[in-house]
Amino acid sequence: MITRLRALREKYKISLAELERTADVCDQELSRLELGIRCRSQRREKRVGDALAALIAVRRAQVDALEQDYLSARGHLLEMVEGSLDEP
User: Fold this and answer.
1) Who contacts 35 (Cβ-Cβ below 8 Å, separation ≥6)?
2) Domain limits at 32?
3) pLDDT (tens digit, 9 = 90+) per residue, 38-47?
4) What secondary structure letter does DSSP report for 39?
5) Between the CA of residue 33 and those of 4, 48, 81, what are the distances in Å?
6) What share of the chain is helix, strand, coil (3-state, %, to 5)?
7) N- or C-end of the chain: fewer Cβ atoms within 10 A?
8) E-assigned strands of the chain?
């Protein structure tokens, strides 16, 4: 048996470190919660849920930006460019 959090992390390729960046919980604590070593509580459920929601928002923004960059480059994807697309 695994937690729903771990199932979601595995399904959507979310590392503990990535989730930790959006959570107020260190990766070791997240791991203990996933393994059932730490007890569930409403406070922990909320913190982990809020972190996952924040991560979803970050990923959504990244995908939206990727889509805009793709649409701008469509038809020219294999052309050489100078520098990086990160540059203004």
Assistant:
1) none
2) 4-73
3) 989 999 999 9
4) P
5) 11, 10, 46
6) 65, 0, 35
7) C
8) none
The helix or strand, by DSSP H or E, that contains position 67, with its residue range, turns out to be helix 42-73
Kindly report the pTM of this predicted structure: 0.80
How many structural domains does the chain have?
A: 1
For 66, the token pair is 């990727």
What residue ranges of the chain have pLDDT lower than 50? 88
Distance CA 25, CA 19 (A): 9
DSSP state of 38: S
What is the C-alpha to C-alpha distance for residues 11 and 14, in angstroms, rounded to an integer? 8
Residue 83 maps to a domain: no
Q: Does residue 20 belong to any structural domain of this protein?
A: yes
For residue 28, tell me if it sits in a domain.
yes
